[in-house]
Amino acid sequence: MPLRGARPPFTGEIGWSIGDIVGHIGSSRLYFASAYRGEGWIGVSPEMDRDDAGAWIPWLQLSADRFRNLLHLNTAANIRGKSQSDHGIRM
Question: The pTM is what?
Answer without folding.
Answer: 0.68
